[in-house]
């Protein structure tokens, strides 16, 4: 509804312009012909002022969308408000009408000019050059998107691919997401993205594309900046690129950001470590090895592959089942689950966790009557990094299931019946860094054996004692 | 009872909604007001307000700095806050100043006090002499941190601590400084830090309050403590700190009255919340909601509190760790064990107060006594948390109260 009113602004603004100016014309006519038109004049100033206020409100709502140049908006906004106020004054202060109306006409003109600048761009008044046709892109005949032939040398088979990534993949993304502000229509930050030459030229802040380096290509980095960042593109409030689209741009830059057809061979048998056209074609989330790109890049690659943030309504639905989910940090997709309120404990509530398997990284099942059989259920929650099973009824027998939690880093088993035998099994857990074993049946001897195999894992035995003073 | 109410207030059976002539009139008024508010006036005022605030306000320097900092993922989910009320002397705890020994008895140079106000206690003194520490310091841990001889147990866990020596308050009297510490302002009336946490992060364990306060019984009562130090200020009242006392009645008025077996308590509370809902529909006062949630929590606490306050199942080893005091209910050491139990139960914010640190004339004996009461248990709390794996999710704050001496 609000959006609808906002979009009416361009329509409503013409009412005060027309009505107030018409009032001015009547006033002038009355001045020269001495006909009594006061009733009509008052009426037009009243209606003109009301419509001016309505235009202000609608305009303000429209400005909230953030789609326009803020500095220009500020000028247009305050001249607009001044116009509305002056309109009211013209209506109320009858004796000064003739003086005020001149001011009003000047204000309407200035406001209108600012408004038009916002919609049509600067220099619209004197710019006679024809608009470069956007439609050029559309008229390019749809080339065959992909030419593929399979070649085999007996051992391996190769796929040869010829493809114009820019034309088929990148340009359509830019067109839907960026052209609104960066093309012939508007050139925010003096940047255009509608042709190869313009993209290579960059904008006011410099070059935006360096083939092969996503870190030095603001065309990519600005997409993955936090949305609150001033440099984030598209700006907050605009339609954002999907993860797939961001991935596509990233892959294109890594592949050399070519604007021409590219030919590449892809082995069908071997895993690709370097980025490939194939990954663009299949829209796969390519894992880029650290040898081709430095660490920082791979971190950015991962950020685009975060699982979705769990909505608050889902968190609420878990809360109704007494499972407390809390985000690791504000805005983070990852959550911790706490079962402190699940009394009496039923293992069916563990099944609910499978729906949030991707986001769940911390699971607290402390002090509950958890049995070995229950552990089977959580073995599929593959992203768990910290697991609290202290003071539960588990034994060594559950450890083979736990081993499937390949991301597991911290494991709390204090107050359980784990023995040296169990500790031995923990030695094969890959990512484990801390184990809590206070009040278990593990012996000093068992720990010594374990330390030989995994010297880097910290074992907390809880045997701290103060030196007596 | 329902029938009685029905006669009196013309209650409708179905949704228990009250119809009184005056109330209906009030409802109509409210609706008309609402309509006016939400149309012309509201929209215009909203628009202008937003415009003015956006064009007038500029970000303060602090805000700009905060914006520039990278976002830090907060790790701590629980806090235990050990508040040493009265102001432990820094020269007998963590702030080693050997240079003062040579200046013993000399007047405090003006460059130190810098014109700071004097309190009523010291304003009439003819001079302000320097007093060096009466105790020795040694370096401990891998961090080689200087710790006074009065804190032998804390010295053994010093590597687990982060000691900040630069904090001060501008208030020169205890109560405003204390209020500032807990609420961020020297005047009473704002929410305390625990209330903010409860409000912002919510409670994990639905059977216990998110913010619990324990006050030591074995401390000298020098500077008074007021319940507003753990008050909710302008936040809904379910976020205020709940004080747990030692003794038979840990939470006042929680137990059923004498002579009442409590079997139909749940039923009674359900009817009460129906009545409260009714009141809420009529007045829309958020405090009604707060009261309802408190009744529900109190009911659940009738079973959860006796359980959590019972330390009889703790092993001898635990009491040994926290020191001999810990067997006696209400001492600082016993409260430290309780704090650990509460945190284990996922209580968000546990705050311990220990009074008796306001030393003027009797500092040497007073400091010895106070440190003895708190040193071992504070250190034990840290180690007990570490082995139970509560540690890396919590902060511990051992704060000093006041200005320089």
How is this structure best described in words?
The complex is a heterodimer of chains A (469) and B (405). Chain A starts with a helix and ends in a 9-residue tail after the last strand. Chain A is elongated. Chain A has 469 residues and is α/β, with parallel strands linked by helices. In chain A, helix 8 (165-177) packs across helix 11 (243-254) and helix 18 runs parallel beside helix 19. The model of chain A is unreliable at 129-147, 268-275 and 282-304 (pLDDT under 50). The longest helix of chain A has 26 residues, at 38-63. Helices cover 43% and strands 9% of the residues of chain A. Chain B is an alpha/beta fold. Chain B has one domain. Helix content of chain B is 42%, strand content 8%. Chain B has a 5-stranded parallel sheet with strand order 5-4-6-1-7.
Descriptive labels:
heterodimer; A: 469 residues; alpha/beta; Leucine-rich repeat, LRR (right-handed beta-alpha superhelix); 3 domains; three-stranded antiparallel beta sheet; 19 helices; B: alpha/beta; two-stranded antiparallel sheet; disordered N terminus; disordered C terminus
Any idea what the radius of gyration of chain A is? 34 Å
Overall pLDDT of chain A: 80
Distance from N terminus to C terminus of chain A (CA atoms, Å) equals 74 Å
Low-confidence regions of chain A: 129-147, 268-275, 282-304
What is the H-and-E element order of chain A?
HHHHHHHEEHHHHEHHHEEHEHEHEHEHE
- Strand tally of chain B: 7
Oligomer: heterodimer
- The number of distinct helices of chain A, counting runs of at least 4 residues, comes to 19
Enumerate the strands of the largest sheet of chain B in spatial order, edge to edge or round the barrel: 5-4-6-1-7
> What amount of the residues of chain B lies in strands?
5-15%
In percent terms, what proportion of residues of chain A is strand? 5-15%
Taking the sheet with the most strands of chain B, its summary is: 5 strands, parallel
Structural class of chain B: alpha/beta
What fraction, in percent, of the residue positions of chain B are helical? 40-55%
Reported for the largest beta sheet of chain A, the result is: 7 strands, mixed
